[in-house]
Specification:
Elements (H helix, E strand, L loop, with lengths): L7 E6 L2 E6 L2 E2 L13 H12 L11 H13 L3 H9 L15 H21 L17 H12 L3 H14 L2 H8 L5 H8 L1 H10 L3 H24 L2
Antiparallel strand pairs: 1-2, 2-3
């Protein structure tokens, strides 16, 4: 799409902050009013619009995409999205170790065991681990506590959580990011242990490296959204 405006700026509006394109209120993909909860997030989105070139590239506007998702999709089906996100706790990545080689298993244990310990202490959700490909049932109380944690979030946070669990395959890692227990880089390391191990030992596959790089970029964007949301 060709750029149709000269500049974007923020403005306080009823219920929060809006973004104006040449004094016209910006709307979501579904044409709903874009009303943001913090000025910092509004400024971040305005900056995404301001740095566009002659053509608008939506893929370069992750903050706008997440904000639209929160308003257009999460707010309309909150319970469904909470259930979808919470289901990751049933087969969380950090509970499924490789059975070999030992170097990989050792690396997984070094990174994932502290995360499960954190889940037990901070979230009251102890999780069972296995080295089998068969799903291991988790305690119902743990799954309930994980779901309650997600259910207590705003639709803004839920939009980010949906992105994070999709990227990492782990509800615990996503919650650790939300609570600033992990940095973005730590979360990427924890979620890509096996891929990185394979690349180190058997060489880098260009296509897989590109996928990992895109996931890393998307995760950083989601964490940035959380940061601006909490400013």
């Amino acid at each position: 799409m060709k750029k149709f405006y000269k500049s974007a700026e923020t403005k306080p509006v009823e219920g929060g902050y809006g973004v104006l394109l040449d004094n016209r209120p910006l709307r979501t993909n579904a044409k709903k009013p874009l009303v943001l909860p913090t000025e910092a997030l509004a400024e971040g989105i305005a900056e995404e619009w301001n740095v566009q070139g002659e053509k608008i590239k939506p893929e370069t506007m992750p903050l706008m995409t997440l904000a639209s998702t929160a308003i257009d999709l999460i707010a309309e089906d909150r319970d469904g999205k909470v259930a979808e996100i919470s289901k990751y706790g049933e087969t969380d990545l950090i509970c499924y170790y490789a059975d070999a080689p030992e170097d990989l298993v050792a690396r997984q244990r070094a990174v994932w065991e502290p995360l499960r310990a954190w889940s037990k202490e901070a979230l009251n959700a102890p999780l069972i681990s296995t080295d089998s490909i068969i799903a291991v049932p988790q305690a119902e109380a743990s799954l309930t506590n994980l779901r309650n944690k997600v259910d207590a979030m705003s639709h803004w946070q839920i939009a980010v959580m949906q992105e994070l669990v999709s990227i990492t395959g782990s509800l615990v890692i996503a919650l650790a990011l939300d609570e600033q227990h992990l940095s973005a880089e730590q979360a990427i390391e924890a979620s890509q242990l096996e891929e990185n191990f394979q690349a180190e030992n058997w060489g880098e596959d260009e296509e897989e490296a590109e996928v990992r790089g895109q996931k890393s970029q998307d995760l950083h964007s989601a964490v940035n959204f959380l940061r601006l949301l909490n400013k």
